[in-house]
Every structure is written in C-alpha cells, then in structure tokens.
Give the backbone structure.
Amino acid sequence: MEKIQMVDLQGQYKYIKPEVEMGMHEVLESAMFINGPKVREFQADLEGYLNVKHVIPCANGTDALQVAMMGLGLQPGDEVITADFTFAATVEVIALLQLTPVLVDVLPDTFNIDPEAVRKAITPKTKAIVPVHLFGQAANMEALMKIAHEHDLYVIEDNAQGIGANYSFSDGTVAKTGTIGHIGSTSFFPSKNLGCYGDGGAIFTNDDDLAHTIRGIVNHGMYERYHHDVVGVNSRLDSLQAVVLKEKLKYLDFYNERRKYAALRYDDFFKNHPNIITPVREAECDSHVFHQYTLRIIDADRDALVKHLQEHQIPCGVYYPIPLHLQKAYKDERYQESDFEITNRLVKEVISLPMHTELNEEQLSHIAKTVLSFLA
Ligand SMILES: *Cc1c(COP(=O)(O)O)cnc(C)c1O
C-alpha cells in the first residue's frame, strides 16, 4: 500500500504535470511574472466557475480577508462577529485592523457559526459578520443573510475551506459559497481544495464599486499610476501560481467529488459506532466539499486515538485544539465560558482523518480499520 498522507499533492501533480510545466515554461520565457496574462485568464475562469462578477486575486487567504474588510471601510472600534472555532487568520485580521473581534459559539453538528449566537452578540457597534465555511461545509447563509439584512450588517464569507461548495436556499436557488455575502475570500494555500504551489488568495464580490475599491487597495491604494488615494497594501497573485490554478480549476469539481467519495466510504465504515459521530451534512444540500473529514470521538480518549494512528503511520489532525477565545492574543474579559459550550467540547472531541483527491479503497479501509481497532 502506498504511504498514507494527510494531503497527497505529489499524486495529484502526476496527472496535470505536462500542462502545468508547459504553462510555467511560457511564463518563464515571457518573464511576465506579475500581473501577466495568466493571472487575468485565471481570474476570468474563476469568475465564470463561481458565477460572480468580480474575482480579485491576491497574495494569500489572510490578505484576502484583510483587504475585504478594508474595502468595506470598516473602522477601528467596529465590532465584527465571527466563530470561536476556526483557523486564527479569521480573527487575526479583524484585530490587526483594530476592529473589535466578537467571537461566538458554533453548532455541534456542522461546526459552523451559530446564527442564534450571532443574533445575541449584535450591539449598536456591530458592522459585520464573518461566517467560515468550516471544513468545506457551507454555514447557514440563509439565516445569516437574514440577520445581516435586519441589522444592516456586512457579511464577509471566509471561503478558504469551502471553494466549490454549492449552497441551496429554501426557495431552491443555489449559489457557490463565497458569492452569497457582500464579499467573500479564499486561500489557494497548497493543501486547500483549490491550491497552488506557493501562496495565493482571492476576493469575490458582485458589487462593482467595492471591486474597484479593492483592486486599488491590493495595489498600494493606486487607481491611477502613482496617485495613492487610499492606504493600500501589496498583495498580488503571481503568474506561476495562476498557471497552476488555471489548470487545477478545470478539475475542481472532480477533485471535490473525489473528496466526497472518500467521505462516504469513511461514513460507511463508521456507521452506528457508539464512540463516533461522522460529519453531518445539511439536509438536501450539496454543500460540503470536505476540506477536512472530521469525526467527533465521544466517551473515548481522542488524544490516545491520535497517538494510536501516528504509531500506525496514519497522519491525522486536530483542527482546532484550542478555542480562539482562550488564545492569549484574543482573550477578552467580556467573554464567559458558558458562551462557548460547544467549541469547548469540540476541541476535545474532533479528529480529522486523511482527506485528499488520491485516496484509494485500500488506504481508506486501512485508515478506518485502524481507527476502529482502537475503539473496539
Ligand atoms: C487557510 C485559511 C485561511 C488563510 O489562508 P492563507 O492563504 O494561509 O493566508 C483563512 N481562513 C481559513 C478558515 C483558512 O482555513
């Protein structure tokens, strides 16, 4: 059996190698490394795929979130509500811009931000909500957009883990995650569902004015050469990364299908096990693209399971082991432990198994049996 990896980028590369190398060669020959035609081509392809008016490529997913917030004109002291159970980048940029992060609890089944907790956290200073489509599953956008509309708030979707997911509204309309809020962001970090071979990110919006503002912000606040109208940043996607992304975008749906298939196989192995809760999908929604396949381990020692898997050369991850509200950088005396009952429990229960596009039946079965042998 081939060595099991958490993410198998070498295996995936084999299938796209000639096209990627040819594209990279073209860039090397043209020497148009920055703002070259490859970036514009990828941008147009992604706009088409997502059915969104504007994609603005940038340097990484963290910048994408930061620039989104800058573009909306959020000001120091404005409160921004986000989930306690997510990667730190989400809250980091809020704090960095001197906005006030307001962390709220998540739902135990989907791990996504709890709309009721959002509602309770709203104050006159609240300006935005940042839902994260955690592990690849869409947050409850219908409820969140309704709350945002009622309270005149912006919604910024952190879609770093959810690219390609379809969200279905109760009226039957379907939209790609990242294109539903006022603005969305994503990351093209190599291990993400659409990853490049370095750092990359993008911002999505259907708002023409906001897109214009953001195109200037990512380019030193310039709208006209050497006229700096606003304080900007330097955040660009380079042409070599655009080559990789343009090629991989063609396969994104296929890659996500491969992930969903692996998830279904895992589900079968773990069905009805008293110590395992398999990932819950929102009913009738094709809304989960399995950036991670994350189990909850109940009435058993999760940390010992991690060790057991490591001893059997099976990589796994604990995303995330510490709630953000307990991180030194993000502590706030306004928080009460009782506000984070679910996150406090999840950090002790979750374990993410290998999840990528190259997992085969033999590997999936071996991983599942090794998990089950520990819990037996
Ligand atoms: C990966 C990730 C980011 C940051 O993306 P980078 O490209 O690594 O900066 C932000 N939010 C979430 C939820 C992520 O998973």
Observations:
- Residues 60-62, 86-87, 89-90, 132, 158, 160-161, 187, 189, 199, 201 surround pyridoxal-5'-phosphate (CB under 6 Å).
- The two ends are 24 Å apart (CA to CA).
- The first strand starts at residue 54 and ends at 58.
